[in-house]
Amino acid sequence: MLKEKKNVTKIKSHYIHQYEIQQERLRRKKKRLKTRLILLAMIVFLIIGSMTTYHFSQRDLRQAKVEQYDQLQNELKTLKKQENSLKEEIQLLNDEEYLLDLARTNYFFSKKGEIIFTHDEDDPSN
């Protein structure tokens, strides 16, 4: 049903006046509290949003650094293997017999009275 409009006159007394002032103060206080709570909630959501964004960007950055670290570790292993092989080669090059053998095979140097024959591995008729 429709609400009926009540036509009741207010009593004008000091007590009623004080009561209305008190009710108005409570209404304003509730409104300010509600406004403060909404403002606080917005600030909290803003902070949580920025922290979440920061977290995801840091997580992506960390992932990129981990991948770069793994790549550099693999490169380091490769370089260490290469270093070891080069050290072995240096040791072999310091050996006089190895140098003579290397010169004989690569540059066809021969000992006194030795004859060197060469053949092509590509030509099957030889």
Describe the protein's topology.
Elements: H1 14-94, H2 96-107
Keywords:
126 residues; mainly alpha
Write structural notes for this entry:
This is Cell division protein DIVIC. It comes from Cerasibacillus quisquiliarum. With 126 residues, the chain is an all-alpha fold. The protein has one domain. It has two helices and no strands. The protein is rod-shaped and about 140 Å long. 0% of the residues are buried.
Radius of gyration: 47 Å
Distance between the termini: 119 Å
The structure class reads mainly alpha
> Treating each run of at least 4 consecutive H or I residues as one helix, how many helices?
2
- Helix and strand pattern: HH
Strand content: under 5%
Could you tell me the mean pLDDT?
A: 88
Summarize the structure.
This protein has 2 helices and no strands. It has 126 residues and is an all-alpha fold. It has one domain.
